């Protein structure tokens, strides 16, 4: 799944209108009313455009384009060897309980990737040969969390979690993913027992086809600081930091479990990078196993299928079939679509690439988990979220102890040096209300600040008189004190302060939005450089 076909990479897409993209960038930085429009826009033309936006947010928040573009990841080396191994894997699966319709084979997509193709039988279709699934992979070939649990490290981690004080350290939904990652790490380090390693020839071959860490460098998790800096205000940037912290915490817990069980090296010798690799393999390739409590599982062979978007005009792309799939107690089932004119039994039918949908997600989700970005059509915009991160620091000119106390009530530390990073977006008023509250507090005069506090206490007391159960009162701090306009004069000062924050954010970009748009529309960049460009341009 992390690999998108080269043909998809080169699909043409209509040039995005510069005016719309200019607004798009501004939408990523703030979302407020007409007063904000007048203060932040530099020209009458922008004011008119913002007025249009404020009256029709719903229609403009879904950008209109004429086509779809998928940006494929960069691959470090030609994967012919991977194709050969995949062909061997197919042969081994056929020798077991799995079965495949005639004409299913591995093909090289472009020059560096591989996929699954279906070619109708060259001989006349025999009606007595019935197959409901074009591909069926038996459950015995799956790689499941139970395999990781059977390893020494898995046993140590199970014992670690059996202690009540440790169980709260891991979210229950993450535990199956960690057992699956343990198995992959044990394989990667060559620590599987002979019985485990030779349990299934197809499984062993499949593990050999998994991409190396070098081949996963299209995933943001493995980008260096300079690459991540290109993302600027994109929501992907803090998401990468959060994921690294989460997976590092898992790794440290694993090391602690190994130490407490007294397991010696080499079982405890795997590195954090190896753990990142295993978790990334699961994120990009695992299926949800409906036949095993919705735990993640790796299913050999079929995870090579690429993501297929539902076309906005209802007309499927020539040469590609979007298949449906399911997993039950028997195994993995893949069915050809029945709502197309393609006849899978007609020898004259052209060969088709088989693809599946990874689900309806934002481009940020696709980039984080699969390493590609999507510019989608209007009718099938897949969960796109226009969000960005705005950093706020109390200016040094605000040396009021009361303001500093309010800003620092969130527990993040010195408000003059530690930024308050707020993720804001269209259709999400809450975060923007917090930003404006911080600006109103920072720009308030002493008497205004006292009035804000009195008003807050009154609202607090009114809420307290009506609260029930375990409801908690809203704490008094900079982000909550004044979430609606206080006065005309204060609002003007607050919005001017917001203008400074947004302009500071824009100055961090090394290129203009027009330059980035030109690079995309003229196809001067591909792979993850293009994905980073999309992210900072506001499409992710």
Helicity range: 40-55%
The low-confidence parts are 1-79, 377-384
Helical stretch tally: 22
Overall shape: globular
What's the story with the biggest beta sheet? 4 strands, antiparallel
Mean pLDDT comes to 75
By secondary-structure content and strand pairing, the structural class works out as: alpha+beta
Question: What does the model show?
Answer:
- The chain has 540 residues and is α+β, with helices and mostly antiparallel strands.
- Helices cover 44% and strands 11% of the residues.
- The protein has a 4-stranded antiparallel beta sheet with strand order 2-5-10-9, with no helix packed on it.
- Strand 3 and strand 4 form a beta hairpin.
- The longest helix has 25 residues.
- It is globular.
- The protein starts with 5 loop residues before the first helix and ends with a helix.
Give the gist of this structure:
The chain has 540 residues and is an alpha+beta fold. Helix content is 44%, strand content 11%.
Which keywords apply here?
four-stranded antiparallel sheet, alpha+beta, disordered N terminus
What's the layout of helices and strands?
Blueprint (H helix, E strand, L loop, with lengths): L5 H4 L8 H12 L4 H7 L3 H12 L1 H4 L8 E3 L8 H16 L3 E2 L3 E6 L3 E6 L16 E4 L6 H5 L2 H10 L2 H4 L7 H14 L5 H4 L3 H9 L15 H5 L6 H25 L11 H14 L1 E3 L5 E3 L22 E3 L1 E4 L3 E5 L16 E4 L7 H8 L2 E3 L11 E6 L8 H7 L12 E6 L3 H15 L2 H21 L21 H20 L5 H9 L5 H11 L3
Parallel strand pairs: 8-11
Antiparallel strand pairs: 1-12, 2-5, 3-4, 4-11, 5-10, 6-7, 9-10, 13-14
Helix pairs in contact: 3-20, 6-12, 8-14, 10-15, 14-15, 18-20, 21-22
